[in-house]
Amino acid sequence: MDVGKGALPQRLAAFSLLALIALCLAWELWFAPLRPGGSWLALKALPLCLPLAGVLKGRVYTFQWSCMMILLYFAEAVMRLFDVSAASRWCAAAAVLLSSLYFVSCLWFVRQVRGGCDAR
């Protein structure tokens, strides 16, 4: 990660992405799996690994497309906030926060690197 333009939002995006990957795995394997012993839904963490290298390298294009992908995880987390299990609700709330942090960090990074938008 560079120390220059966009370093803080890049670090926040990397942190939230890594934390969301870990949360998805822990949620579906240990904390509140759909089936006892874990579920195949843990594989939902795999698409989150796709933008990881680009985020760590600071590639603007990766921030742009992954910003749209993360909305699927946000939507799933919002729906699962209404789950019966308390553990699942806590995991869903954490996923909402992490996906929101990632989304905002991506927008912030792109704006800083590309110079923002001028209203002329």
Describe the structure.
The radius of gyration is 15 Å and the shape is elongated. The protein has helices at residues 7-31, 46-49, 52-57, 60-80, 86-114. The protein is built from five helices and no strands. The model has no long low-confidence stretch (mean pLDDT 91). Helix 1 packs antiparallel against helix 5 and helix 4 packs antiparallel against helix 5. It is an all-alpha fold and 120 residues long. The termini are far apart.
Top keywords for this entry?
71% helix; mainly alpha; elongated; 120 residues
Rg is: 15 Å
Number of helices: 5
3D shape: elongated
**What's the N-to-C terminus distance?**
33 Å
Regions with pLDDT < 50 over 5+ consecutive residues?
A: none
> Approximately how much helix is present in the residues?
over 70%
**Largest sheet composition:** none
State which percent range the strand residues make up: under 5%
Mean pLDDT: 91
Instruction: Say how many strands there are.
Output: 0
N to C succession of SSEs = HHHHH
Category from helices, strands and their pairing: mainly alpha
